[in-house]
Amino acid sequence: MNSARVRFGRVCVDAVDHAQALVAIENLVATQRGGAVYTPNVDHVVLAEQLPEFAEAYARADISLCDSQPLRWISPLFGPAIPERVAGSDFFLPLMRLASKREWRVFLLGGGPGVAEEGAERLAREEGVTIAGTAAPTIGLTAEAGEEALVALIAKARPDLIVTLLGAPKGELWINRVRDRLRPAVAVQLGASLDFYLGRVRRAPVWMRQAGLEWLFRLIQEPRRLAHRYLVRGPRSLLILASTWHSRRRATIPGSNDTGEAL
Q1: What domains appear along the chain, each with residue ranges and CATH number?
Q2: Which of 1, 6, 98, 191 has the greatest CB tally within 10 Å of its CB?
Q3: Of 147, 148, 130, nearest to 139 (Cα)?
Q4: Could you tell me which residues come within 8 angstroms of residue 96 by beta carbon, excluding any fewer than 6 positions away?
């Protein structure tokens, strides 16, 4: 992708808006070389510091879309301003409509029981999306028994686009492990986007999303599952971001040995 990138710790983010993101994915699919698309947020910045393999997945990302209002707001301190938050939940339906328009074959991977199947039926009926297949296997942080069979299943379906409906870091790690074996398909990690599309999970009100408070709405909905992410890992991001900013600032001082290069 030719856009400018902003580095937050070990995660780099493309400074693009929704329209530019769609064009970038369309171009990536057209190359027929495969690829990986992620939607990082503040939690991903922390995870990349803790998990070297997660940082590696981001280092190989072809497209990295900002799914965080706070990161968008502070982006001018770290590089070019990110023009818009490109949340996976908002991006999902426009991407599916583009897939329909371009007649791409779409494979839905992940989600809870019956989610991918329900989503496939609705997307085909309402949006004219060509569904190449669905699967909802158990996927871990590392390769497990059955992964080769899953890769073979997806490859046989010949998708142009694979939408992974997995949580972080599982989705990014899985894509990074198998992406070369699934070419020319492009894999897009969109987490719970299909749950939102189907109305299985409620999204935060617009004003909370615009105010950067969607995390609070989700925490109230699922406190047990999300408390550690938002209340423990979340504050650690401040140290990582401060270190990145300091590194970048030193790089602008004549005579400094700190290059501030992205990892």
Answers
A1: 5-242 (3.40.50.2300)
A2: 6
A3: 147
A4: 106, 123, 127, 129
Q: Beta strand pairing status for 11-14 and 5-8?
A: antiparallel
Regarding beta strands 63-64 and 35-38, do their DSSP bridges make them parallel or antiparallel, or are they unpaired? parallel
What is the tens place of the pLDDT at every residue in 250-261? 776 655 544 434
Q: How far apart are CA 132 and CA 103, in angstroms?
A: 11
Tell me which residue of 76, 91, 70 sits closest to 21, measured CA to CA: 91
Long-range Cβ pairs for the range 246-254 (8 Å, 24+): 248/7, 248/77, 248/78, 248/79
- At 253, the amino acid letter reads I
What are 195's two structure tokens?
A: 């749950």
CA distance 221 to 241: 28
83 conformational bin, left if phi > 0, alpha if psi -120 to 50, beta if neither: alpha
Q: Are strands 105-110 and 161-165 parallel, antiparallel or unpaired?
A: parallel
> Which own/partner contact pairs does 134-137 have at CB distance under 8 Å and 24+ positions apart?
134/107, 134/108, 134/109, 135/107, 135/108, 135/109, 135/110, 136/109, 136/110, 136/111, 136/112, 137/109
**Higher local confidence (pLDDT), 130 or 192:** 130
**How far, in Å, CA of 78 to CA of 184, rounded?**
33
Q: What is the mean pLDDT of residues 179-185?
A: 96
The arithmetic mean of pLDDT across residues 50-79, rounded, is 96
What values do phi and psi take at 182, rounded to 5? -110, 5
